[in-house]
Amino acid sequence: MLSQSLIEDVLTAALSTGGDFSEIFVEDRFTNNITLRSSKIETALSGRDFGVGIRVFKGLQSVYAYTTDFSKDGLVKAAKNAAQAIKGNSVISPAPFVQEAYGTLHPIQMMPQEVVKSRKIAVMKKASDTCKNYHSSISQVTVRLMDEEQNVLIANSEGKWAEDKRVRSRLAIQAVAVSGNKMETGFYGPGAHSGFEFIENLNLDLYANEAARIAVTLLDASPCPSGKFPVIIDNEFGGVIFHEACGHGLEATAVAKNNSVFANRIGERVAPEIVTYIDDGTIPNEWGSINIDDEGEKARKNVLIENGILTDYLIDKFNSRRMGMESTGSGRRQSFRFAPTSRMTNTYIAPGKSRPGEIIAATENGIYAKYMGGGQVNPATGDYNFAIMEAYEVKNGKIGKPLKGATLIGNGPKTLQLVDMVGNNLGHGAGMCGSLSGSIPVNVGQPMIRVSEITVGGTKGE
């Protein structure tokens, strides 16, 4: 992508005013986005983005610059501009580069750039037709296909040299159901760190029909009651609540500045013994998986909470300085336009021993959240508010009528402590996560769990 001699010159220029560490991040990204609405192609966009990010440290100072000018003069100028914010007493030279060997954890069979658009559109149309034919109330179907190939090179003044190719593909299906003056929406969006083989091998009947089923089911849903209830949260994307309300609080971005309720609590019990919380970037071909992070560190499995005890944080290189702890391979960024910081990959609650049927049967009067929607969280406190996309009442150990307008209101760390049953059906759901270093692909996951009490906001009181 760039020659070693040029990169060495850039790193040297970045250290010219006394910095103690410099880094270069080179990115070449190809993207495709196709939207099919009502069986017609609405948009078909392809693009290429190339740029370079340069970072300099001096103690607990960090300066970041980026440029799309990859000439020698342009890169050296950007490095020197960044260096102007750093004032040190001595100037060091970069160490010789050592290229680290690692095998890809996520084999790719069909590079998206090599697949003609007509082949992609054929899959999209099949998904759209399947969804539309589910029920006569389905009035509109939107299918989006996204794929990308991101090639990166990361080198730093400590001698690190790492290159990686990341390929991701995702198909998102949205169904709209209408009955009289009622309109409801269902969504399913599977994705993978994989090539077009993932899209072509998807079980379209499953995903398209599920998006349609959600929309149709909600047409006949009753208003959700308000109050405090036991809440059963299903697997896969149900994990978003702990991703937002707990996962962000375990990132060094917040922990290093004591802006997290989990700061300085390693070794403390923060959850029941049945809860183990993991971030694992090594799961083969999962949406949030990586080979290396955006600082060149190998992906790894980080156990954050083990049998209820807080054991680790997610740490990037700069915050490792603040905390006096090693990086956990968690430095991620959206693109060269962002400096990396600590971020999640595939974060999930590990499976327990309870069967889903046992969890439901053990609940006398509660709420079953089959699919979670979006929400908001304050990472400093863990306070959250999440919508439930598809909810049901639970009466006498059985799932009852569908409910709409349900929201979960609470505090992440406190909710974590109230998990009293953990299922054995671990599943993952694909999503995008926004933070200081931009929007990145992540998986959220869990088996079915039960929380003994959460405040449920509904559309009427009981």
Automatic annotation (TrEMBL):
<keyword id="KW-0482">Metalloprotease</keyword>
<dbReference type="InterPro" id="IPR051463">
    <property type="entry name" value="Peptidase_U62_metallo"/>
</dbReference>
<feature type="domain" description="Metalloprotease TldD/E N-terminal">
    <location>
        <begin position="23"/>
        <end position="85"/>
    </location>
</feature>
<feature type="domain" description="Metalloprotease TldD/E C-terminal">
    <location>
        <begin position="226"/>
        <end position="458"/>
    </location>
</feature>
<dbReference type="InterPro" id="IPR045569">
    <property type="entry name" value="Metalloprtase-TldD/E_C"/>
</dbReference>
<dbReference type="InterPro" id="IPR035068">
    <property type="entry name" value="TldD/PmbA_N"/>
</dbReference>
<dbReference type="InterPro" id="IPR045570">
    <property type="entry name" value="Metalloprtase-TldD/E_cen_dom"/>
</dbReference>
<protein>
    <submittedName>
        <fullName>TldD/PmbA family protein</fullName>
    </submittedName>
</protein>
<dbReference type="InterPro" id="IPR036059">
    <property type="entry name" value="TldD/PmbA_sf"/>
</dbReference>
<comment type="similarity">
    <text>Belongs to the peptidase U62 family.</text>
</comment>
<dbReference type="GO" id="GO:0006508">
    <property type="term" value="P:proteolysis"/>
</dbReference>
<dbReference type="GO" id="GO:0005829">
    <property type="term" value="C:cytosol"/>
</dbReference>
<dbReference type="InterPro" id="IPR025502">
    <property type="entry name" value="TldD"/>
</dbReference>
<feature type="domain" description="Metalloprotease TldD/E central">
    <location>
        <begin position="112"/>
        <end position="219"/>
    </location>
</feature>
<dbReference type="GO" id="GO:0008237">
    <property type="term" value="F:metallopeptidase activity"/>
</dbReference>
<dbReference type="InterPro" id="IPR002510">
    <property type="entry name" value="Metalloprtase-TldD/E_N"/>
</dbReference>
<keyword id="KW-0645">Protease</keyword>
<dbReference type="Pfam" id="PF19289">
    <property type="entry name" value="PmbA_TldD_3rd"/>
</dbReference>
<dbReference type="Pfam" id="PF01523">
    <property type="entry name" value="PmbA_TldD_1st"/>
</dbReference>
<dbReference type="Pfam" id="PF19290">
    <property type="entry name" value="PmbA_TldD_2nd"/>
</dbReference>
<keyword id="KW-0378">Hydrolase</keyword>
